[in-house]
Amino acid sequence: MSQDSSAPPPAPDPSPPPSISETQAEDLLHGICFKTGPPRLIGAELEWLVLDAERPEQPLPPERLRAAHTAARALPLNSRLTVEPGGQLELSSAPATSLTGCVDGLQADLTAVRAALLTQGLVLRGLGRDPRRPYHRLLSSPRYDAMEAYFDRTGPAGRAMMCASASVQVCVDAGYEEPGVLGHGRRWRLAHLLGAVMVAAFANSPAHEGPYAGWRCARQGIWSDLDSRRALAPPLDVDPRAAWTRQALDTEVMCVRSYDGDPWEIPRGTTFRDWLRSGGGPALRAPTFEDLDYHLTTLFPPVRPRGHLELRMIDAQPGDDGWLVPVAVVHALFDDPEAAETAYRVAKGLADTYGTRPAPRNPLWRSAARHGLADPELRASAKACFRAAAEALPRLGASRHVQEVVGAFTERYALRGRCPADDESTEVLTGKEVRR
Fold first, then answer.
1. Which backbone phi and psi does 217 adopt, to 5 degrees?
2. Residue 285 to residue 279: CA distance in whole angstroms
3. Rounded CA gap, 364 and 45, in Å?
């Protein structure tokens, strides 16, 4: 899902497993967050809104959404299919050793899912934020009940994130342990600086009213407003492993799962480090390794280290093939050495605007979300990066179709300082485009 691309862990066993200490938690996080080596795998996770083909502006009744999910789950897919709290569908590819393998597998599964849904008068729409109101949570589970209650403490952004957001998430390997163009330290920094360019270039969640009125990427506004820390990037001037370990342990616990069927507890103001140091105490049971694993699934930074790097800042894209573009561009800029060198030179030029505040709350990311490629600095960066990606794709074995789709997007948007949100009006769900 938008907030958690991995399936929730299984329900806890009836008897609690052994507890974990603060030192054990730090050691575990250090060991699993960056699995270094030669970059060779790529993956993607595609989230979609499900709409009525004839009346896309109308919310779907729950029974129609559930029927659509049932039909999709019955298909023999290569990708993992999951359902988001608001009924969005997600397809997650298996890790692939080539861009072609990743794209072809997802494309075949998308074709099958679209055909199954069309028989029910439904379509998939790539849009970063669903403008339909009101939001309705389709899924009910202890996880989502606790998540909703937790986020309701800080405002409406949590419900919007759960029920009305969709993205294209791209996963690349962490990179080599050693420094260099494909080293994990440089790739970590590149992902955060270049992430603002990805937000701006692929902005596809325009808002016409409310707190994000006028923004090209209202979805980023939603993520920024979730809570004080959960969706923020760690500092970039600290060793990546140390920075992520500190960020993970010093973020509030969203919920404490029950082992006996009771409602899950939702502590207030307790970080995971607090929980470790208290050993549970009179208020909470002692934390376990499984609790740490679960806690990590409730952290939603723009770049999440899960052994590999999961880039989470890109809006869902319009059209049948729009999703191909961010997958191909990210792969090229991270995994082709020549394009990666160009991207890093571009990213270094953005560091001053990024500043000391974490993404997505710093000036660079805020401008990307508000203005897209109308921001001159981001526009110049996008032009350089998309050109470098286009040159790299043949070297990476990309098919002619992928090259043509990326080329068309580059010409229509990146080279003209535009993004998909610039095509959209208040009739965004109908598929009608209004040129500005």
1. -125, 80
2. 7
3. 25
